[in-house]
Design goal:
single chain; alpha+beta; Heat Shock Protein 90; 3 domains; two-stranded antiparallel ribbon; 14 helices; 7 strands; disordered C terminus
Length: 331
Amino acid sequence: MFGQYLRYRRYALCLWFTGTAVLLAVMLLSGIAPQLALYGAFLALFLLGGLTVLDYFRFRERVNRLAQIRENLSNALPELPDPPDAVCAQYDGMIRELNMLMRRERDGLREENAERIDYYTLWLHQIKTPIAAMRLLLDADCSAQRDAFTVELFKVERYVDMALQYAKLGGLAADLVLEPFALDPLVRDCIRKYALLFIQKDLSVDFEATGLRVVSDRKWLGFILEQILSNAAKYTNSGGVRIYLVGTELRIEDTGIGIRDEDAERIFEKGYTGYNGRYDRLASGLGLYMSSRIAQELGVGLRAERGRKSGSCLCLELGGTMKQREDAEFG
């Protein structure tokens, strides 16, 4: 801190030492006794030391105060210390004006974003009406293309649901409802939901019951499972999917095109599709990103690796949710 102060006052200190040296030289050239000249110089330096100490404590107090304000800048700006000089007063005024501009811009962006989300959410709810009407029409259809149309309509429904969940992602914590439940029925429900996709591509699904009970949000954990199953069905053309438990890790393994090593660490990034996503050309790079965000909120570990023979394996570490259950049961 003292080094910072010396750099801050370096010009004033240099001026003071220069003035003292000039005064000492003038007194010596004027014929004043050297002892008196040195006495005057030492007196000037003593006064400089006293003023420097007082000024340093004021400087340190101001720096510490500014550091405290910086930690809570958005709420503490009106508490800025009084500026010590006209230059600092100008900076102080500029900071306050910039803060006002920033607040107006932020409030405007928040209002605009809220309106956009409201419209987006309303549209997503409204689009469900024609989707439901199309499903009713397909239920009454007996043509040979009925199953193919049903699968495509199911995909549209899933994209709409994913968009709706994405709109809720910002306030996910407020939407969570944690409760204890058996994991196996949830997995079976997700498999049944995607059964048409697996049947259409003649893929097998092998689910080994886990017998686990977890404390989590049923809807959001189901979203993660559905997204993984959706990707498995999309990128698997032969073979199938196996769901099994290793320790406390639920593994969903497929025999699809797999994950490249250079993509394994980035597939959970927003908008990142990787080589396989670019090959597919329809991938958005949002599904696994959303799954990763939700998994973090649920305390679930989510990672990807290569399958044992081919394809990919998405792993859900559920140990944290099981520990929550134990804590809830034993107090």
